[in-house]
Amino acid sequence: MTGATTSGELRPHNLVRLLRAAHDGAGRATRSELTRDLGLARGTAAVLVADLAEARLAEERPAPQRARGRPTAIVGPHPEGPLALAVDLREDAWTTATAEIGGGLTVREERPHPGNPPEAVLGDLATAIDRWLTELGPRVVSVGVALPGPIRDGRVVDIPHLSWHDVPAAEILRAGATPVALGNDATLAGLAEARRGALRGVGVGLHFHVDFDLGGTLLVDGSPLHGARGTTGEFGHMPLGGSDLPCDCGAVGCWSLQVGANALLRARGVPVEPARGRADALRILAGAAEGDPRCAAALEEVARAFGTGTAALVNALDPQRVTLSGLGVRLHEQATGAFTAAYENGLMAFRREEPPQVVPAALGGDATLVGASELAFDAFLTPEGLTAWQAAR
Amino acid sequence: MTGATTSGELRPHNLVRLLRAAHDGAGRATRSELTRDLGLARGTAAVLVADLAEARLAEERPAPQRARGRPTAIVGPHPEGPLALAVDLREDAWTTATAEIGGGLTVREERPHPGNPPEAVLGDLATAIDRWLTELGPRVVSVGVALPGPIRDGRVVDIPHLSWHDVPAAEILRAGATPVALGNDATLAGLAEARRGALRGVGVGLHFHVDFDLGGTLLVDGSPLHGARGTTGEFGHMPLGGSDLPCDCGAVGCWSLQVGANALLRARGVPVEPARGRADALRILAGAAEGDPRCAAALEEVARAFGTGTAALVNALDPQRVTLSGLGVRLHEQATGAFTAAYENGLMAFRREEPPQVVPAALGGDATLVGASELAFDAFLTPEGLTAWQAAR
DNA sequence: CCTAATTTGCTCTTGCCGAGAACATAATCG
DNA sequence: CGATTATGTTCTCGGCAAGAGCAAATTAGG
Predict the structure, then answer these.
(1) pLDDT tens, A239-262?
(2) What residues of chain A score a pLDDT lower than 50?
(3) What pLDDT shows up at residue B76?
(4) Could A237 and B316 be called an inter-chain contact, meaning their C-beta atoms sit closer than 8 Å?
(5) Beta strand pairing status for A204-210 and A321-326?
(6) Is the CB of A6 under 7 A from strand C?
(7) CA B337 → C1' D16, Å?
(8) 1.10.10.10, 1.10.260.40, 3.40.50.300, 3.40.30.10: which CATH number matches B7-77?
(9) A66: Cβ under 7 Å from strand C?
(10) Any idea where the domains of chain B sit in the sequence?
């Protein structure tokens, strides 16, 4: 959003600002609030809202009266307004959902998949997407897909334990004229937190998603840092623990080897079996909760490594707050003492005065879908996106 | 720069865009180039240039003719135009300089200082700044100061080997109505590279400055990532090497302990003496260049640690290019083999296909001053800054 | 129940801005 | 030396948001 530079760009630009603000307000922002927040004249706001309503981009609904004075209205989604199609592809299943302006999510379909070969999995998903596009019609303006691995130039670079390597996902998931945007699941979970969760309003936030691997994203002013080729956030692949183990990623001593499902198994002394790592890891966490000392020791070891690495990244990146999702929440909750001790010990002295909070993500299991829908709407909530929508009717 | 939202903001906004583009063009951009690059109509450009000239913000000078057609003019600094006062405070001396639009630098004064107490050092510097402000008059619109330590909310947090702790630098350096901006030296060196050096035009770049400590900055679209409280870039204080040494910063195993002047001494087995570490480190580098095997071994050890950590941060942050300044240049140049081997070994496999280049900074010793002047001009090259300038005459 | 106060929406005028067209100008090329 | 080409200059036009004045719809208070 570079901003308007000609008088002709002002109107589209302000329409985007208004619709974006209504979207970010989660369908609760009133016209008078929006007018104030965006610094508009009341007359201008009237024109803009009328434009949005006429274009079926938004609709005003009566708002609960709060104070004295003439009542204002909520600027919310239009019943025939734009939809984002959000897809969350996990290792063993995928979910599709739609989101309207304001973020309201409707889960549409959930299906398991065999994991391999990638072309078949993505091909089936592409078919499902096409079906939904047909069924929902031109209201769907954009598709956002979350994938469980790093993505570079529209290709899934690597999902080691699914044996996906350099899969041309964008090509397979192409959906006619509807734009499809791909994102890493951890990145999108962080994006969701930044827009509608615990990182809302936070200038610089750090999000970690722990599963088998440890991924994350740095959120700057509500958007993930993208990097040169879109693969920022591989924090798990820094040698933050001083280990000498080789990592699947090709490097050595990666933090991921000490924090995650497999790390719990290793710390517990259990063999790492490809398929059931997650269930075994959850069993260890349950064991620790029930007082099994060996499980507790494994948990503490992993929590310490998690805390130390978190401190390292806080030292380097100076976030205001850190959020956790996936196994990270359990690690932090069940071993807060070990985590916090290692975290504070790893901070530079001057950061210990007011260490950034480490908190669980506010959005639960929907975070990835929410992030995918935000990604999709980000592509639409632009002057070009709105202009195309208006031109199409 | 959020962009104009009302018709009245368009003019100031476009004046800023034009002056900023002329500034970034290093005093070589012609009016026709600027018109094209900014997407302006020729008539609009004429008005804007006339405005800038009348406000003594810029001036047109004849340009060397390149092709057929009516000649155009270079939009360069005005002889009575705005100046930025740039200050580089190092551990043992400080330098002041002025920069005009376009970045042309004039060094004004260079003085040694005793290093302590901080209030006296900064007080003397404040006096010098006031003297220059008086001498140069109202042309100086902004002051930028580079300081050799982390800065948070206008205070120097910590310079361990000068024993500076929590020094209220902004308060001491206050300069009447002229705004004073403070920045970390490594951050500003990186900023200079992003604007006028080897990171120019690079979307995401990583800069490392190695001295006693290892600092740096992540540059996103030409600006340093700021963090929640302005202390991003302490990459040296991540435990990237697996060491157990305690660090002055309060954490353990910091990368800085393995990369820097003192690290060279330690690797060579020489006692670390507070005052002359830099000279001793340079002697080791010279020794290595002359073939002394123990110096060479120390150099290689440090270069390997440097390469490994660089890979870790490339994995995590996905920069397009990495630049080095300070001792980092020597470490990389004199032990390219050791550095590169460790660098590539530490990269995730998929990043090895096209590893981000690691190159020395293009600006030499002036980088910090250039960065300080850019910081100062960033505060001026805004609609508010230009409006205030125009109102003042 | 009724009036004053308050807040917001609506309408119209005004001032400003950049686009774009038509023309003028100054260089190169053959 | 005229044709060509690129750029600067001037003027008109359409569009936009600000802002003022008025209308509307609610609450507070008696």
Answers:
(1) 998 788 898 888 999 999 999 998
(2) none
(3) 95
(4) yes
(5) parallel
(6) yes
(7) 61
(8) 1.10.10.10
(9) no
(10) 7-77, 83-189+368-391, 202-361
